[in-house]
Amino acid sequence: MIDPLRYRPVRPISRLGSILVSLIRSAYHAQRLLGREQWSFPLEGHHEDPLRMTTRESLYLGYKYYYRAMLAAEPGSGLEAYFAAQSLRPCIPVGFSADQSATLSFGGDLMTYSSIRPDTCAGLWEEMGDFFFGADIVAANLETPMDRTKPLSTTPEVMLSDMYFNGDETLLSIASGNGQYKGYDLLSVANNHSLDMGIDGLLHTLDFLQEKGIATAGAARTKSQWQDVPILERNGIRFAFLAATFSLNKEQLPAEQPWLCNHVLLNDSNPDLSPLALQAAAARANGAEMVIAMLHMGTAYQAYPGATIVQNAHRVCDEAGIDAIIAGHPHHAQPMELYDSPHTGRQHFIAYSLGDFIAYDIFKWAQLPLLLRLTVSKGQTPNGPAVLLSDIEVRPAFMHADIRHGNVKSLRLMDYFRLRNDPSLSGIDPSEKRHFQELREFFESYVCSIRQQHVFERQRNG
Fold first, then answer.
1. Strand (E) positions, 382-456?
2. For residue 305, what is the DSSP state?
3. Residue 118: partners with Cβ closer than 8 Å, 6 or more residues away
4. Exposed/middle/buried for 39, CB within 10 Å: 0-12, 13-18, 19+?
5. 377 bridge partner residues
6. What's the maximum distance between 2 C-alpha atoms anywhere in the chain?
7. 23-37, 142-156, 222-236: lowest mean pLDDT where?
8. From CA 151, how far away is CA 407, in angstroms rounded?
9. Which of 219, 246, 310, 329 is the S-S candidate for 267 at Cβ 3.0 to 4.6 Å?
10. Residues 84, 451 contacting (CB under 8 angstroms)
């Protein structure tokens, strides 16, 4: 098991980054020696919204990022046992006969980093591209504006203050498979960085993606468009996608234009979920047979989602009838579940975080993204027609970095289970081997329980 007293959550790239991280860690260590507050468990009720964050909450966020890995769930929540008991085997009614099926691939966060460049990412997709882009619908979270009227703005190596992102066409091309695959069918644009380039930046992003033929969820130019969520049909099955974000960092929407970005306080206790219920109902009325919510929610840099997050995800299923939630914001993988709702009488799939996807953050857990593929089938049961989740497949990927002289020289998404099955870890240098072994311990201790091993059997035996 990971020893939180010895484990260092981040791995700096440059000499300057190492110095800054050492100074930050020394400051937290001095706090400990002085008897100041330390955290062994997640901070209860932590909403992680910068607009409302107290000094104590900011210190806690830095503590679990730079200083101590937050491995435990909230005391008394029972979440460790709850997630360990999840089998992730969809419940298929007896006598169900499928007539049609469609596959959907989901990735986590697409972000701006200076290391995401054509020269570093030429081989990025060699091992994972066929699997990810081979689905009927491919989707992810675009965690940056794409405003071509403004310069590229990337994530700093060491995050010490407010950050404002802006991507460009090169970033999207790399994230879309370097021109070797079909790219994305849909992207969520509702996240805490949606307004980094202002309202105009968000509208420019919608224009940019429309030009690329990519559908968007989570933002709208007009009030009528807000209710008209995208519906994509594949193999005779109609899928609706809605998206929302718990925070817009320190930015705010104009009071008279709340539809510009779907802002729902998903990290707070007892949030108003009526916007999601209204959108889901409208999607059903427009012929959607399965409704998927891509929700930016959760608390970052901790192994388990908070109890409030789990409760709110369940409420979204109960009150809005969402079939599947693909959530994100923690920037690293967290457990998944199949939730049997007593309100809907149905089973709902929830992925709390797939992690960073095309990014390279110095936080170690962020370098093990999950690539998710869902199979949805349409057919007949003894009680009538049904559209249901029939299969779940997850492929972890190791974001391998070739780092030399304080610079990232190349990035590759490597098949986790290929490496897992190779005792020599051939093809990667010693420092990356140690890093992979740490990630393996994290994944197999906190993300994938014994009861979920079947989800990965095809990769492990393949």
1. 384-404, 407-415
2. -
3. 170, 174, 178
4. middle
5. 101, 388
6. 67
7. 23-37
8. 22
9. 246
10. yes
Query: Two tokens at 123?
Result: 């081989």
**What whole-number distance in Å separates Cα of residue 430 and Cα of residue 427?**
10
Q: Domain-by-domain residue ranges, the chain?
A: 81-399
| Residues 232-264 as b or e (16 or more Cβ within 10 Å = b) | bebeebbbbbbbbbbbbbebebeeeeebbbbbb
The model's pLDDT over 58-84, given as tens digits with 9 standing for 90+, comes to: 999 999 999 998 999 999 999 999 999
Query: First CA to last CA across the chain, in angstroms?
Result: 27
- Rounded-to-integer distance, Cα 348 and Cα 341, Å: 7
Question: Would you state the structure tokens that stand for residue 104, as one six-digit string?
Answer: 């959907």
Neighbours of 178 (CB within 10 A): 17
pLDDT score recorded for residue 450: 60
H-helix or E-strand spanning residue 314: helix 307-320
Cβ of 387: how many Cβ atoms within 10 Å? 20
Using DSSP, how many helices (H) and how many strands (E) does the chain show? 12, 14
Nearest to 374 by CA among 213, 188, 245, 239: 239
